[in-house]
Specification:
2 domains; about 30% helix; homodimer; five-stranded mixed beta sheet; alpha+beta; Phosphoribosyl-aminoimidazole Synthetase, Chain A, domain 2; 14 strands; 60s Ribosomal Protein L30, Chain: A; seven-stranded mixed beta sheet; about 350 residues; 8 helices
């Protein structure tokens, strides 16, 4: 289970108000947390799951492995900069990378809807393979199921991944320290805007492409250079704000971000205004935050900026020294805004 | 990818006749093979995938691991003897067991349809946990997505699994030898009949319950006793006939089965007659074939019959010594029937 945390402060929309699944349960915000906390965690209760990191860390014999899964239900299947196939590979590769693992093997489970053009399927499968080759992973096992027309939406893909952890770091929310720096590897909001614009049939002056990309190589470069990483998280469903709110809650610490330091492309910011989204909450598929000691910032930024996936890397804020669980955004004129989880979803079926 | 094999003889329904997915592509028969052979294998082409066993066998450091995935789209979600939750756990545990692995960890990816009663979700999740505990595996990582009403069917579950291989046997179709014995661990057809009867609202004099059960412990007991297993396969989608046709094709050998030796419960056989199914092609979720040398038969049957999952174990046939790729069924009066893959599906959404 990704990102849930039972320690969130007061919860205005308890699950008991719902007796059925609503779209908001899939948005990555408060309702998703409630669902996971109320139903999945109590049932599957075990110490590995309770770590609630992007991938489970397992000891098998002498080997430390990372293991993760994600289902992809993005709509539409094809969008500028990617498709459900590349997304399904990169998303799972990135979850493995967030424990500092070297991704090795993926599985692929496809749920096909009756009527899906085989040409589309072929395009998606080829895209999965290209993404796998780029991320240096092999798709080694799979499964296909077919559901009746009107019981799916073209194709849903699940990928699970196995990676090997070759370092001795513990990369987890529990490692976050007061005073740690928060690095971001590039501009935010492109994936969500690309998908939503494509869904709505909107076009902007420039084409906004998803940032969908594999992040494992970037992370491994940091680890190989001896950078002392405390925590990593990729900024998918719920975006930068949700990821940091979750990490702050897990670590029982606060954070202070400088809005001016957070890169958002002008066209993305304009599109967000038109569509009524806050880029801080928009999903990315090639972005991560890296939380690490102050002393490691210069080296880490240098490595990130030299990497294709980190050219726009920036120091965007710090973990607060005080015991305050809030994530606070300071804007250009010094005003402070408390970031909070969205209740439901701003962008359904974005990944 | 499960069970496909490019070596099948002439194929009367080439994929090129279809330009869209049809239900038959999910039936486990010839169309499923075509889909996998024409689209997935050429794209994901790698030596591990090409083994085409129930789970991929991976070398990670010193460790031999089994890795597998399956998506579960069974309809209805609840049926006599099980539900989609227990099915999703046992199905993947069994795929791991078919390489002789000890199943350790599962992932769970749930695609929830807007409107699913939370009470149903809770029942299913609890059932997954009970099945996991019974099979001695841990559900360590997961993901939930929500799709709009009319884009799913309550819940689809993907599970992927990791197991550790602690023996030196190579258990694979390539190990099958002429003269090998074919053992079956119990009566066939119950899972498919239970689901279909439940779907059709049929009731029979006796309730036919799914045979859904974990098979890993049974397999490990055989391995621990030193039984020289050549090949294992569980008899899910497509049933006993499809599994053996696939194994015969992979091994480039024929098989001869004694119909009288194949256990089918009378009520199952009656229900199949009413519904127009052939029990040989009906899905099971707690049945396997074990192919092994003649000399190991007595010991293996003794171990199987002493185990809750093998009480009805039987020797049902032999691998032919001649080079004949057919799977032949001899009935009680000596008539011979050639078993062939079904073209599409007899039972859609059975697992």
């Amino acid at each position: 289970m990704k990102n849930p945390d039972p320690t969130f402060p007061s919860c205005p929309t308890p699950i008991s108000r719902y007796d059925r699944i609503v779209m908001g349960h899939g948005g990555g915000g408060r309702l998703t947390h409630n669902l996971i906390d109320d139903i999945f965690i109590p049932a599957f209760n075990n110490s590995i799951l309770r770590q609630l990191t992007d991938s489970a860390v397992l000891q098998v014999g002498e080997q430390r492995l990372a293991f993760t899964t994600d289902s992809y239900v993005v709509h539409p299947l094809f969008f500028p900069g990617g498709d459900i196939g590349s997304l399904a590979v990169n998303g799972t590769v990135n979850d493995l990378a967030m424990s500092g693992a070297r991704p090795l093997y993926l599985s692929a489970g496809c749920i096909l809807e009756e009527g899906l053009p085989l040409e589309d399927l072929k395009k998606i499968v080829d895209s999965m393979q290209r993404a796998a080759a780029a991320a240096k992973v092999q798709l080694v096992t799979g499964d296909t199921k077919v559901v009746d027309r009107g019981r799916g939406d073209g194709i849903y893909i699940n990928t699970a991944g196995i990676g090997v952890i070759e370092h001795d770091l513990k990369i987890a929310p529990s490692q976050i320290q007061p005073g740690d720096a928060i690095l971001l590897n590039g501009d935010i909001g492109r994936h969500g805007v690309a998908v939503m614009a494509s869904r709505a049939g909107l076009s902007f002056e420039t084409t906004i492409e998803s940032d969908c990309a594999p992040l494992a190589d970037l992370v491994l470069k940091l680890i190989d250079a001896g950078v002392e990483i405390h925590c990593l998280r990729d900024l998918t469903r719920g975006g930068l704000a949700t990821a940091l709110i979750e990490l702050a809650a897990s670590a029982q610490l606060g954070m202070e971000l400088q809005e001016a330091a957070i890169p958002v492309r002008e066209d993305v910011s304009g599109a967000c205004e038109i569509m009524g989204f806050d880029p801080l909450y928009v999903a990315n598929e090639g972005r991560l935050v890296c939380i690490l000691p102050d002393a490691a910032v210069d080296q880490a930024l240098k490595i990130m900026r030299a990497h294709p996936q980190g050219q726009g890397a920036a120091l965007i804020g710090r973990v607060s020294a005080v015991e305050n669980l809030r994530v606070i955004l300071k804007n250009r004129i010094g005003t402070r805004r408390i970031l909070d989880l969205l209740s439901g979803e701003q962008l359904p079926r974005i990944c």
